[in-house]
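Design request, tokens follow.
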């Protein structure tokens, strides 16, 4: 049921659109009251703030898309001069995909034909496949030819 809500929210907000453009999962991430249930680990943002886990970093990036991931681990004074961050949207997609992978997709049938020629039972199953094949896109809705 949780996955239905996630995918429904993301699709209705245009976050998971029909094209192959990268998507943010900010609506999904913002739905968490707090991030304590997620695995802890330090992440240093380009704003030189240390976040306690990917959820906290993702929430910060959603609030300010200019924040990217500088590196894993605590921020230090030496980080002020460091460049080579990872794009924040990549971290968000990874966090979204990790969270979605732990959810069961609904069994309802609303077929999606993807660019790989496969027909997925519904949009949730398609999104799970897209998490491991980032270049995947929707070719049409319904069975693939």
């Amino acid at each position: 049921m949780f996955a239905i809500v996630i995918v429904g929210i993301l699709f209705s907000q245009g976050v998971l659109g029909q094209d192959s453009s990268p998507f943010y999962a900010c609506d999904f991430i913002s739905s968490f009251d707090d991030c304590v249930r997620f695995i802890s680990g330090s992440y240093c943002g380009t704003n030189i703030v240390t976040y306690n886990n990917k959820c906290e970093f993702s929430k910060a990036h959603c609030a300010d898309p200019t924040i990217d991931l500088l590196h894993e681990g605590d921020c230090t004074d030496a980080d002020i001069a460091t460049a080579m961050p990872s794009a924040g949207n990549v971290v968000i997609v990874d966090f979204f995909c990790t969270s979605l992978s732990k959810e069961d997709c609904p069994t309802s049938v609303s077929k999606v034909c993807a660019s790989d020629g496969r027909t997925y039972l519904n949009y949730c199953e398609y999104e799970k496949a897209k998490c491991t094949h980032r270049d995947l896109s929707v070719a049409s809705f319904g069975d693939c030819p």
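Comment from the thread starter after seeing the answer: thanks! The longest strand covers residues 69-72.
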